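[job 4471] stage=fold_predict status=RUNNING
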Amino acid sequence: MSAQGQDAPVGINEKAESLSSGSIDKVESSHVDIDPKFERRTMLWIDFRILPVLALVYSFNLIDRINLGAAYAAGMGTDLELKVGSRFSIVTCIYFIPYILLQIPGNIVLRRLGVRNWLTFLIFAWGIVQLGMGWVQNWEALLATRILLGIFEAPFFPAVLWIITSWYKRHEVQKRVASFHVIAVTMGGLSPLLAYGLSLLNGTHGIAGWRWIFIVEGAITIGLAVITYLFIPAFPDVNTFLTKEQTDLVIRRINEDRGDALPDEITFKKAVHHLKDWTLWLTVSCRYVGSYFGALLRAAPPYGPSIILTLVVAYFADKYKHRSSFIVVLCVGCLVGNSLVAWHPDNKIRYLGVFITNACNCASIPCVLSYAANNVVSQSKRAVQTALIVALGAFGGILAAVCFRSQDYPRYVPGLAATLASQGVVLALLAALTIRHMRLNKQMREGKRTEPLEGQEGFYYTL
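[job 4471] inference complete, writing structure tokens
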């Protein structure tokens, strides 16, 4: 089954907003030749300018989100009386309420406030909150800081996804998302080591070790806010790090690919309109049910195979302009690995299952994100989609925490059975979407459909 992202180029002549180097003139028509060397140099510079800084900040977004468990183990549970009743569970889960609710509003204001201003404010604000968590004296104060952390962290990840996908052609996206994901998750995976090292400061200046975890990591995040202000990339039409010729090239490439390099206004009314598209919900639901694996795999050590598989899958998925078959194979891999973990009597084989599951799950995340990003047009719809996919992914994390219960140790069969079911749901949703996309693509090629797909002439769905 072969997918074709576009059979005909799309030419759009519009003017972008002004840059420091001047305004962008009308986009050149697609028949003008592009110097391949100039194009390669420009895209390589964009890769180095965008991906490392975003991955660095996102890694601490992950660290600041998940360090609560390390602090609990380092003595916070006793000092703040979190072991009483369900206090620790409440403190853990309360974060997700504002985190889920504020994804879409955060992306709506991103363009209006400006990427640098908005993201710098968010990072600085959650850094201050993280720092403040080191000084709380009771569990109620900790609960309040977790709510604030959810508020300020919520808009960050969907904004990052939106920014990354706005710079590249649809079939260049997965390699970039995979690279970003691998860098961020690898750095975030060092969180337990960092937290353990900081906990050894216990008693230094009369401060408990668990408090040092929040204080130091909060201070680092505040420092990253400065780096963000200086180096965070904006959208292509308002960037300040490319020359005018390079910016013209990027705008033209995107418009020839999908026609949405220049922004359309994002309003609450338009966001509601996009949310009525049932295919948007099906696509993001693939990410939601797949996130069941999160709770089990955060502590899994076999990251090496995961990195390799994630990058290899991304390379071939972009090369063949295809997503769904790769997602199917990775889902089957998760089913096999998960079954081994749940029911095989040999612990060595069960551990192999952890490797398989971790690698396939890690590789599937950029694949699903790219599949979703490839099949929408307009920046407003992309803003809603990236926010929705992150919000529903957070729901999966909550359900994982519920399904993987301490009383099910050491085999966690109920949780593992739930992950098996979730992969079945992914396959069903993917089949429905792919059949629908194939049918509409065929109708367009045969001239049986007059209305362009996604409202964009020359657009075809990626399968």
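[job 4471] summary: The chain has two domains: 49-242+250-263, 264-446.
[job 4471] exit 0
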